Amino acid sequence: MARRLMIAGNWKMNNTYAEAVVLCQHISNNFCKEWDDCVDTVVCPPAIDLKGVWGVFEFDNMPISVGAQNVHWEPSGAFTGEISTGMLKEIGCQYCIIGHSERRTLFGETNEQVNLKLKALLEAGIAPIVCVGESLEVRDAGTTDEFVCAQVRAAFAGVDAGKAKQCVVAYEPIWAIGTGRTATPEQAQEVCAAIRATLTDMYGAEAAEAMRVLYGGSMNPGNVEALVAQDDIDGGLIGGAALKAESFIDLVKAAYAQARK
After folding, report:
1. How many alpha carbons fall within 13 Å on the CB side of residue 53?
2. Most buried by CB count within 10 Å: which residue of 25, 170, 184, 239?
3. Known catalytic residue: 172?
4. Residue 142: CB partners within 8 Å, gap ≥ 6?
5. Contact 128, 100 (CB under 8 A)
6. What integer pLDDT is reported at residue 190 of this predicted model?
7. What digits encode the pLDDT tens for the residues 208-255?
8. Catalytic residue among 100, 102, 109, 134
9. For this structure, is 100 an active site residue?
10. Using one digit for the tens of pLDDT, what is the confidence trace for 168-218?
11. Is 238 helix (H, G, I), strand (E, B) or coil?
């Protein structure tokens, strides 16, 4: 089954509102609409920048989606500093990252919370980008597949196949995030294949083959082609390379070229 590739930029805690608008204008000015024929492009800025980023792409009529970096599972209430699915939906968010390793390690986000967020996003009609990945200690212990696939099972617990097909999974080896180290295409493919095998076991081959699995871990214009050429890697969740219009555009362009082969 041919899956549409995806290049999603995670800005993390970077760019003021004004800087975000300028960066998105540069992306928009250099974006070729024909790339949307086979690549989904997503920009995930800090929450305060979401409306401005959406406004640039909407005004320019660009086929670039906007995603959030986090969400709370409750629709409203006494949760100071949190953002609900309804708030994200109203300002144009189509995607939302959940379970990023930084949320897990720095802020104590659990598998159970990721599951609650996933269900809340699906209920709101926002597609979750579910992050999973192992530390260097887990990789050195030789238990990467078991660890990562347990995260997948926990994130999707209680979610049926029809809903699961709306989700994206992003494999992000923690040891390769922001370090300049990248899993080899073969290493990344091995884990992404294990993720898809887990989804097949949970939902059947048809649903698993329809779901996209991204690689997130220092993907850049120099390695993107080799990574997305792998059978089970359907694009990338991009960190540092998404903070410059030129490198982000190069990634989308490379994904489009690979999809056209």
Report:
1. 30
2. 170
3. yes
4. none
5. no
6. 97
7. 999 999 999 888 898 999 999 999 999 999 999 999 999 999 999 999
8. 100
9. yes
10. 999 999 988 777 777 899 999 999 999 999 999 999 999 999 999 999 988
11. strand
